[in-house]
């Protein structure tokens, strides 16, 4: 009994020391971006890659030390955005405070309601920034990476579709208006080579760029790939294949 009591005291003392160490570590000042080096789960990389094909911006921070993810969606896509925020926040990639509705006045006085999420800055995100951006005339311009096929996982494809996709006739569309004709055509080829999905580019009207149209004969395959990652309330984006 004396021996058991001795070990109980040792265990309790050790537990107290561990708790104090944890408390001390929690009180340490916030990590700088150069100290945030990963490694990152493939799902995190997939989400960033997929959303970067949409309106998500990768911002190189002061002195180029690190990069943060700026994710923005209109108020029409709030459920997806809140899921995105919860996913990042629960894994320590951004704060827990829920995004608030913001208002922006666009050209011709059009009012745009949107939400925005800023991730923490990571030096280990710099390589993704370098994938998607070129410095032209002292300004970073987004482009489609030539190696995008290597990183377009099923989750990345689903995230891309969640952000910019919808049903169209018997098929589906993905908005790619921000990319050039050559880049959109390249993305169609990537879908074919990576997943055997037949997709073509469609013109959006005068000076409005092009979209990707996924043909109806590829919708069963496309749905099988992306549906496991979609929120049930967003199945409607798949049209009759939901």
From TrEMBL:
Domain Homing endonuclease LAGLIDADG: 46-222
SUPFAM superfamilies: Homing endonucleases
Gene Ontology MF annotations: endonuclease activity
Superkingdom to which the source organism belongs: Eukaryota
InterPro entries: Homing_endonucl, LAGLIDADG_dom
Gene3D superfamilies documented for this protein: Homing endonucleases
Coiled-coil ranges per UniProt: none
Keywords (A to Z) from UniProt: Mitochondrion
Function: Mitochondrial DNA endonuclease involved in intron homing.
Name of the molecule in the record: Homing endonuclease LAGLIDADG domain-containing protein
Gene source species: Russula foetens
Organism taxonomic ancestry: Eukaryota, Fungi, Dikarya, Basidiomycota, Agaricomycotina
């Amino acid at each position: 009994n004396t021996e058991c009591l001795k070990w109980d005291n040792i265990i309790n003392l050790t537990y107290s020391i561990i708790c104090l160490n944890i408390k001390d570590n929690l009180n340490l000042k916030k990590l700088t971006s150069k100290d945030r080096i990963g490694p990152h789960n493939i799902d995190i990389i997939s989400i960033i890659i997929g959303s970067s094909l949409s309106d998500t911006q990768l911002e190189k921070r002061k002195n180029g030390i690190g990069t943060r993810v700026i994710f923005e969606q209109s108020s029409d896509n709030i459920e997806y955005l809140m899921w995105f925020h919860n996913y990042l926040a629960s894994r320590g990639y951004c704060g827990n405070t829920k995004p608030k509705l913001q208002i922006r006045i666009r050209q011709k006085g059009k009012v745009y309601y949107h939400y925005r999420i800023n991730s923490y800055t990571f030096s280990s995100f710099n390589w993704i920034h370098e994938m998607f951006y070129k410095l032209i005339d002292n300004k970073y311009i987004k482009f489609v990476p030539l190696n995008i096929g290597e990183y377009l996982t099923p989750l990345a494809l689903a995230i891309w579709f969640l952000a910019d996709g919808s049903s169209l006739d018997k098929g589906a569309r993905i908005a790619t208006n921000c990319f050039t004709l050559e880049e959109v055509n390249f993305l169609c080829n990537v879908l074919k080579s990576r997943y055997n999905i037949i997709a073509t580019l469609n013109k959006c009207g005068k000076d409005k760029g092009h979209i990707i149209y996924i043909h109806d004969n590829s919708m069963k395959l496309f749905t099988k790939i992306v549906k496991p990652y979609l929120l049930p309330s967003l199945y409607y984006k798949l049209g009759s294949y939901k």
